[in-house]
Design goal:
It is a single chain. The chain is mainly alpha-helical and 148 residues long. It has helices at 8-33, 42-66, 73-99, 114-147. The two termini are 21 Å apart. 29% of the residues are buried.
Length: 148
Amino acid sequence: MQQDPVGAGSTLAWSVGGGIAGGIVFGVVYDGMLPGAPNLTMWTLIAVCLGMGVGWAVGSAAAWVHTWRRWSVGDALWLAVAAASIVLFAIVAMIEARTSSFGPAIDGIGRGHPTRQILATVIVVDAVLALATLVLFGLRGSSANRAT
């Protein structure tokens, strides 16, 4: 199988696209299993976050198989910006999941509700997974540079 010589932008697109697709699929499937009309619940949010992690992993695996390139300085910058963005987003999302009001769509969820901690934990696990894949892509690209 011939691999396309594309860089970090394409690699990130595969991963992000997989994460978005996974979040949508998991959220819709979970909500569809519940009786009654569609409703946003904490468990639906947790399902979406789980789906995003699974989707990111699937997208990253597809990127690993279909893309390869010797990283340039621009590619390394793409990966570094992506990693910094993921860390900042995860910190804010985790704090928001634990402390903020979700509004009238999700009633009865106080600040001490256990599903808040579950959601925050899933967010952190997703962020660690994303960072780990970015590090692997970075190592793969840098080793290709050394091999030549």
